[in-house]
Amino acid sequence: MDMGHCKALIVLGLVLGGAAATLTSNSAREKENAAFPVVVNTWADNGFQSAGAKAWEVLSKERGSSLDAVERGCSVCEELQCDGTVGYGGSPDETGETTLDAMIMDGVTMNIGAVSDLRNIRNAISVARKVLDHTAHTMLAGNQATKFAKQMGFKAQSLSTNNSLGIWQKWKQNKCQPNFWRNVSPNPTGSCGPYKANHKISTADLIQSSNEISSQNHDTVGMVAIDAEGVIAAGTSTNGARHKIAGRVGDSPIPGAGAYADQDVGGAAATGDGDVMMRFLPSFLAVEEMRRGQTPKQAGETAIRRIVAKYPSFQGAMVVLHKSGQHAAVCHGLPGGTFPYTLASPTTGKATVFSVKCL
């Protein structure tokens, strides 16, 4: 064989070898992306499944971004007033007013947009998205968040309805029971106040979970999504705890508590007793445990058990999503001992309800 022929064969081999390597690389990438897009959210009935369905439509049919999917999915729950615990017309505070909390997080940039104690604006998750897209801030609160929303073109309107005001009136007639006051006079277990602080502080009742979670009080829609490009986002929306003290902000808009997303690892979202959960940052902890090598199930259990160790009567749940598309849900203390949640992926082909037993 002459040298020219030999060189030609070598070049051909290199070309074919490179092509084979490219095909192998593309094949691996296609296999990896077969798990995407995917979206998982807390709860299933009374509109929560519809939220997952809308997010899936954005991801699968419109080929939209994970941020768009989270925003539009949570928006559905706000419009449907999921369980009366998301959106307008639910969970009146002790003055009878409904206020909203929401957040949305970009797992690539780690940027966050959030609103808390939002008044007179119904589109909380979309206002949070405006905070993300159009400010250098993370959270806006109260009346100033409302002012910002109006600047961004949102319509101001009452968040109260006949139903929410009826709930409040019934609560007042029942001597404002239950409520969130502690260590005050007159005794908050049989009075509507006004209250004054007791000089002697008792901590005996402070280890109890304070927000009863039931089939009519799910508390929050929390959602984590990965789009077709593998980009992760997470978000939440809620009208908070029913009969809360005016001005109270729960876990939902707090990064790492209500939800968290990190492109290098995955994301998580929580629901339940927000006053307790925000003390432990369970969504952040679950993501960090996955970073350390735990599976989504193990990571969620670690986060929940961390809370239960201090608050044995804690009621709550989490959904956890790894960057690979693997997911899990965990819960503790929920009525019936199970937690229904919604998942949509290439495997399910639509928003599908699953359920797990609580720890």
Automatic annotation (TrEMBL):
The record marks D219, T220 as: Cleavage. Its EC number is 3.5.1.26. This is N(4)-(beta-N-acetylglucosaminyl)-L-asparaginase. One of its GO terms (cellular component) is cytoplasm. The active site is at T220 (nucleophile). GO terms for biological process: proteolysis. Cleaves the GlcNAc-Asn bond which joins oligosaccharides to the peptide of asparagine-linked glycoproteins. It holds the Pfam family Asparaginase_2. GO terms for molecular function: N4-(beta-N-acetylglucosaminyl)-L-asparaginase activity; peptidase activity. Substrate binds at R248, V249, G250, D251, T271, G272, D273, G274. It catalyses: N(4)-(beta-N-acetyl-D-glucosaminyl)-L-asparagine + H2O = N-acetyl-beta-D-glucosaminylamine + L-aspartate + H(+). Keywords: Autocatalytic cleavage, Hydrolase, Protease, Signal. Residues 1-21 form the signal peptide. Belongs to the Ntn-hydrolase family. It is an enzyme of class 3 (hydrolase).
